[in-house]
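Good day; I would like, with your permission, to put a structural problem before you. A protein sequence and the structure tokens that stand for its backbone fold form the material at issue. I would ask you to consider whether the tokens describe a fold that such a sequence might reasonably adopt. I set the record out below, with my sincere thanks for your time.
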Amino acid sequence: MTAQDPDRIVSSEDEELILVDREDNVTGFLSKAGCHDGKGLLHRAFSVFLFNADGELLLQQRARGKRLWPGYWSNTCCSHPRRGETLEVASERRLQDELNIAANLSFVYRFVYQASFGESGSEHELCHVFLGRVTNNPRPNSSEIEALRYLSAKALDEELEAFPERFTPWFKLEWDALKNQYADQLAGFVSGRDGRG
């Protein structure tokens, strides 16, 4: 298998995303640009939280060229399945696209949110949240990611409290829900265990 360029262009405003209702039933398809225009149209998405063996979360800083929330810190990986893709296929693809890694993921929950980034557009997503373990060294794709770092849960909580404006809105919502509503699932990863015995 030929190694891919780690900094290759992996996304386009023209790619077709999956429109859904609040129960995650498919209602149609629309370009990524169209999904994010104005207040946004509800579409399927996913967020991945990967932890290292010490229980630290891998955070990414979004590339400066991003249309929405450029330069903001967020969870390990977040994106959308494209038309015809399952969440499993899309999340595997995106981990390769952004970080050049693979990981086994565990689904935790899904939720709907809407957040606007001024005149640049909005996210309006039904987002599926997954947890997993980093098993090898990520190589960030510079077309998607400005920087990477690991933070313990305690250090992350402190930084979120001190500088909430540095983080994406979906990440803040997801981290809060993971800690307060899905603490049992989160604990296995934060403590350095995989929760599978």
Helices lie at 32-36, 87-99, 153-162, 169-180, 183-190. Confidence is low (pLDDT under 50) at residues 193-197. The longest strand covers residues 105-116.
